[in-house]
Amino acid sequence: MVPRTGATAMLVLLTSGAMAFLAVFALALTFATGRLADRWAEGLARTMTIRITAPQDVADAEARRVLDILAQTPGVAEARTVSQEEMQELLLPWFGPDMPVDALPIPRLVELTLDGGGPDVDNLELRLEGEVPDAVLDDHTRWREPLVTAATRLRSLGWMSLGLIAVTAAGMISLAAQASLAANGGVIRVLRLIGARDLTIAGAFVRRFTRRAALGALGGALLGMLAIAALPDMDQAGTFLTGLGFTGASWLWPLLIPVFAAGIAFLATRRAAIRRLREIP
Fold this sequence. Notes:
This protein is an alpha+beta fold. About 65% of the residues lie in helices and about 10% in strands. The two termini are about 20 Å apart.
């Protein structure tokens, strides 16, 4: 009763495969931004920086004084002075290798690694203000919050993309089911004459379109997983885009896409078939 081949069959397979392929990338984007937000939130929250803006001879003495203060401060696991070589590496992408970094008025930096809940920021700032006036404490809040907010919103966009993909797939499959029902109007009338109920006729279309959607989505999901696996490893490049992918058990999530595609096809086809059968006299 339901044609095994034809335009509608190919449309369902291609639509399901393309939507599943895109869903894999949307899912990878969602997981990647989630990891990025957690890494930025946790990494920047566990460190602080003290900036000492003073002449070179004074800055060295004040840096040592800051280290002595931090050694007596609860909540500070480790404190160290950032070396000139490290500062040069940080500035290299901005000024290039030929820039004489030593000639620049670069402040001395002291990096803190926090322990437990961290130090009492207010008391630490007051002590630094009294004993080392040129020292300024930076808890990275100004930098951390926009980064985490941006990553969180990008993760929300990933979930929204998955929803739009599901809606688009449901609409295309619904149109294909209606076209197939309209093309087989004569067969449906004959089946009604011999006693077939509309639910039985609709069930035949639902089963066929659900299987097609599941097979197409399975192929698209597998191709998407292969494409994700072919991307450069995050540890090799260290950038956000190269971190787009799955880790550990998260590789199982794309395998659920064909299941969801089958469920979407079942609901969309059943609704379209019942509505279309009511229109066929």
